Every structure is written in structure tokens, then in C-alpha cells.
# Entry
Amino acid sequence: MKRTELKELGEFGLIDRIEADFKNINSETVKGIGDDAAVIDNGSNVYTVVSTDMLVEGVHFDLSYVPLHHLGYKAVAVNISDIAAMNGIPKQITVSLALSSRFSVEAIDALYQGIKIACDDYKVDLVGGDTTSSRAGLVISITAIGVVEKNKIAYRHTARPNDIICATGDLGGAYLGLQVLEQEKQVYLANPEMQPQLAGKDYLLKRQLKPEARMDVIYELNDIGVVPTSMIDISDGLASELMHLCRSSNTGAVIFEDKLPIHGETYNTAVEFNIDPVTCVLNGGEDYELLFTISQEDFPKIKNHADIALIGYMTNIPKEILLNTKSGTPVPIRAQGWVHF
Ligand code: ADP
Ligand code: MG
# Structure
């Protein structure tokens, strides 16, 4: 039998392949594979939304520079981010761990200290999980459960041409935070006497080590009466997430380079590292901001929001994603995302 390498399919191709083989048979399953969270109708006035994410040592984090309490916090935040991306309110999480004997009780205490702070911050209950042993490294899998009023749910597939594309916060910082940590690790390995040079990188380190799910924006949108026409969280980079919105909604998009939100520290550090700042914004991962679309009529409600950038608009040309550069030239952008395999 022919052997196909995983890298030939890629992560998205693999998920598509899995999805193609399963058909939902329960009427309660409103949305299965293909969005930030599954959507379940339990017959009340709200939908239940459910999302799972796994963090693997050596793939998603390196314990030589990631403190365990931050890791615990981040593991919760990245799951809450997927609930936020449905315009949902998180309620419960479960936490599953695979551990080796390398970890002490105190280490696990530190991990759970971070998990607890996140539960307090996002007002969720830890309601269960699973604990097992691992031969190599730490694996944390978290499932988050939330609710959303039925008429407020925000899918990936419901953007329409002419909708305005919005991004929260700023982008590219978490990626550069990782570059800073990696560089310091290499310096340390070469010479353990060297002190780490992390001065002036506080913002980037915070973006990498302690990202926040943008629940604040979800509550604000609710307060000002805006329901996004589509939404996704930015875990793999703006280009990749915009591609998902366009692919699911059968739209294209135009975004403007001079509207892309970037923090000063991100910009300066990108230049320092000889990386194009725009590449960091488009393809840097792990910012956990929200990318969403609104209808033109909601523009006045959002146009002066300090923490939401209006970066472009949806078009009726399926999958054509253009970046209008500062010089006025439109260039097609391709999503790099993360290469997992
Ligand atoms: P996100 O980046 O928002 O966490 P993913 O790209 O991980 O989303 O997943 C996209 C969709 O594919 C989601 O609906 C997710 O539940 C589903 N999915 C991912 N991996 C698997 C898998 N191994 N089996 C079934 N569904 C999966
Ligand atoms: Mg997501």
C-alpha cells in the first residue's frame, strides 16, 4: 500500500481529509469540524460552544525559558480565545496532562497556579480532566466550553463581500518575543556566564509568555451592539486566518499595509533582527487577537475604537487576498501559517 507523508497533506489537508469521512448524525450538532469551536444546540436559548487545543513540550513550548505558571495561564488563554472567536462566553474547562517523572509536585503546583489565575481572570470553572504518564515531555490538552446567544454566534463562513475587516490589538509581537527568547537561549548555551539581554523587550516577552484571550473585546462588542458577521482568532498569523475566513465564506479580501496594527517594540525588534515587520504581522503566530468582519452599517460604532484596527474589506473574488502596499501596489498574500510536520 502506498505510504503518504503527512507533510504532503499539511495540517489543513489532514483535517479536511478527516472531516470528509465523518457525517454528523445528531440534529443537536449545529457546526462540527471547521470553525474555532463546535456548536451544539441543547434546546435552550443559547448554543454551547466547545473547543480543544493541545500544547506539546518541544513543539509549542520550551521549558528552558517558559516558566510553568505562565505555561498554565497560556494553555487556558489559547482555548478561551477559540470560544471568544465564536463570540462566546467561556464557562468551563477540562485539563488533561501527560507527565514524566522529570516533573516534581512543586512543578505541577506552579503549572496549576497559572491555570488558576487564568480561571479567575476569565471566570471559568475547572471541571475535570485526565492525568497520565508520558515517556518524553509534557503535554497539556485543554477543552473549553462556553455559551453564546443564538443570534450572536460568529462563524468563519458568514463574511460577505464589502464587510469591513477588523483586527484587535497589535500583531507580530508574540513571534518576535519567541525570537528574542530563542536568541538568548543560544547565547546562554554558548556561554552560561552571560546575563540575558532582555531589557526593552518586556512587551514582546509578555506577548509570547502570557497572551490574553480578547474577552474584553467580546464584552465591548456586545455593549455597543455589534455582532461580527464572521470571526476567527489569530493563532497562526493574520494571513493564514484571513485565508480561513475567505475560504469558509467564499470571499476574497483586500487589506492595507498602512492599516496593519504593529507595536513600536515589535517594529524596532523586527528591524533589529533583519526581519520585515510586515512579515511578522502577516505570518507571526500566537498573538491570539481576534480577526473579524462587520457590516458597513456598523462602521460608525467601531471606527473610533482605540484597540480595533479597520484593516480592509471583503470582496466577491473567492480566495483572492491582496495586500495594498504603502506604495499603492496590490500584491497577493499567501498564508505561511505554521508548518507542523
Ligand atoms: P484552531 O486554530 O482555531 O484551534 P484548528 O486549525 O486547530 O483550529 O482546527 C480547525 C478545525 O479542525 C476545528 O474545527 C477543529 O476542531 C478541527 N480538528 C483539528 N484537528 C482535528 C482532529 N484531529 N480530528 C477532528 N477534528 C479536528
Ligand atoms: Mg482558533
